[in-house]
Amino acid sequence: MKNRLPFMLLSLLIVMSVLLGACASTAQPANESAASGEAQAGQSAADGSSAEPVTIKVVSFLTYDENKEGAEAAVVAAFQEAHPEIVVDFQLLAYADYFTSLKTWIAGGTAPDVASLDLSMLQEMAASGALLDLNPMIEADGYDLSAYYQSTLDMFQNNGGQYGLPASYSNVVLFYNKSLFDAAGLPYPDDTMDWDTFMAYNKQLTQDTNGDGNIDIFGTSRLWWPYYMLMTGATPFNADATECTLTEQAAIDGFQAMVDLTLTDYVAPSANDLAAQDDWHMFEGGRIAMYPIGPWSISEFNEVIVDFDWDATTLPYGPTGEKATFLFGNAYSVLSSSEQQDAAFEFMKFVTGAEGDQIRQDAGFEIAPIKAVAEGSFLSAMEGKKPVNAAVFLESAEFAKSVPTHARWSEISDAISSQLDSALLGDITVPEAMQAACDAIAPILAE
Q: What is the pTM of this model?
């Protein structure tokens, strides 16, 4: 109704003007600009520029669990304020059942126009044809992608298509217990640390403090298995996802380094150790010296850790000289079934651009993919908090890598994980584990 009222008033003025003109046909306009404005307004009405706003349906899980104040709803409200010509039918959902619901809507022909997606969701949907390749719209619009961290854009590409624009990202850095380093007389780790130095520190920091034969303080903790593939430049399959490559030496080397942390060098907790206490709480309790973790831990660690000082640096160079970290992220995508693709893209630009990113960043949700927002607001929000070296999260974005994805990635990931679990128990060797993983993955890739 806010759009209709000015149009109705303007129409009434035009009608009155015509009637007055009929009564005084010899009268001239008071000034030419006013007459011109009325003519242009009348033409705008004739052209339909005051037409009814279009409506787009948007679903999202962003900030549902992390921000009870409704950061994502605030992003949508800000867009609505800036674009009254587009009405957003917005629904915020919990992550747990989100993807199942989204696939049900797609199958039933009631898909939204725009949806937030994490990396694996997006890649599966892109492969199935459910998402719109944004490249033609980006090119036609002249939309400048250089404002984003390039690695965050790369995450949401598939076969050259850009199937989403990033709304938030997070990566993994290395937190370290400064008090344990001080007690061991070791210099603090920094961004030049290589794998040999990392392992030397681990061995000196791992301790059985009470002499009972059980390790009480570990040098480090294992990361999710894809990291050990990324740090040696390995991949689970070749470029066109037709052949398993886990038996290649780069993959073997990476996973051997992972297994050795627990089975050979005893510097990282085993499965039994983690069953007694997870590594998150081990670090909080001063039992892990170097802990690889992401920005989602910052709030709790600042509240809980009071007995020791801690800071952060980048993950070490891998055994083959590669420097890598995980890149996680969430994007917004346009569904290929959308009948309002132009309006949907307008929404996308706002909610993944500087305006939307700023609202999420102010709410403390992950890190903004827009460089100017991250380098300003994220760092300023970290002032007075730990880690002091919060810039490490932004520095790590430059070499962060996303996990290779596939439409059936969850099955592929499960196959690899189960074999690595056996290797970590010492039941099979790493080469045997990778051969078994490839045997399970090959039929998937062959389809």
A: 0.79
